[in-house]
């Protein structure tokens, strides 16, 4: 009578062990819960260097469907337009999410712009030297009718900058294997105009002055642990 019970017992032990292993391999610790909470409005100054916020420009509204997705992914967003002493304008958008999983990961601008009816005319990886950092970024050129918008952006996942789905997925996996759930932040700047070379030059100058204005101890919140932030 006891022999048939042995396979069942072994099966039960294996199922319990598998469940325990699955739980152990599932990330549980949110990095966003460590340290001082991020406050984008307090971190990003309304004026710095030759730039000041231009409150006469109203940000473009997004569709209710896109907004619902953004609200689900991000816990904080900041959108401003800045103007400098020469009348040049740069649009800044920063979005932060405390939990980065496959379902709740930062959306790249190529996805969000396409969802709003833009055509993506080109994407390229680049590195920019701003403040004391070399930051890996993406350059994107989007159009909608006569509107031409060169874009520079980067995504911070936990302590590193990632570009594209592969790097994003590998970084998320690395954190997951350590039992941690990383936070994520998107920094995007853009300008209006078809001269991409000139636009990216203005955007780099803007980012250089912005990062120099932020206290050194807080810059990692935007650029992760790239060279010069420790």
Quick gist of this model?
With 230 residues, this protein is of the alpha+beta class. The chain contains 7 helices and 11 strands. The model is unreliable at 16-27 (pLDDT under 50).
Written overview of the protein:
The chain is an alpha+beta fold. The protein has a single domain (28-223), classed as Protein Transport Mog1p, Chain A (3-Layer(aba) Sandwich), CATH 3.40.1000. The protein is 34% helix and 31% strand. It has helices spanning 5-25, 40-43, 64-73, 109-115, 164-177, 196-213, 220-223; strands spanning 29-30, 47-48, 51-53, 76-84, 89-97, 119-130, 133-144, 147-157, 160-162, 180-181, 184-190. The strands form two sheets. Strands 2, 3, 4, 5, 6, 7, 8, 9 and 11 form a nine-stranded antiparallel β-sheet that branches. Strands 1-10 form a two-stranded parallel sheet. Strand 7 (133-144) and strand 8 (147-157) form a beta hairpin. The radius of gyration is 22 Å and the shape is globular. It starts with a helix and ends in a 7-residue tail after the last helix.
